[in-house]
Amino acid sequence: MDALKAAVNNMVLQFTTMDPTNIFIRLGTVAYNSSVSSTHKLDPTWNKPAVIALTTTLNATGGTNSSGAMDWANTKLKDPSEINLHLSKNGNNEPAKFLVFMTDGDNYDSSYDTATEQICDNAKANDIEIFTVAFQAPAGGKALLEYCASGAEYYYNADNSDELLKAFENIGEKASDLAVRLSS
Fold first, then answer.
1. Dihedral, CA of residue 123, residue 128, residue 134 and residue 138, to nearest 10
2. Helix pair 67-78, 110-125: axis angle to 10 deg
3. Domain 2-183 - what CATH class?
4. Rounded CA gap, 6 and 3, in Å?
């Protein structure tokens, strides 16, 4: 959990450096175990430090069910108000949309894999780029993340803390590059 917190912190700092005036990049977060708690969700916001603050409160507990978190994130990114918020803040009516999906486990029921795969398909069909990170995940978790990634270059397999930090750094760089190209 400490490695995840450090990785998220570093990635958010990358985005803060890229968007110091908080007018281009909105971030949100949702954490999950066997379910999603309302205290572990943060709607997309221009306030990037809020993501770090929420992440620091997380603890590893329970089983794994990614479907609720992925559904919540996909719904937030597809919400038309996201476009309206960008349009009014920075004039961009086609903001790049990214989702970072990480797990260190297998969903405890295969129906959650199926549901998550359907949500990933829906997100990709709606031009949401999905980066995935398997952190010491078993085979089933890795297979799900490989499926959900927007391509082979969007999937990361991290076996230790250093690899996790590097994966999130690479995701921050790629997302920043894509966002700059799409919003220029």
1. 10
2. 10
3. alpha beta
4. 5
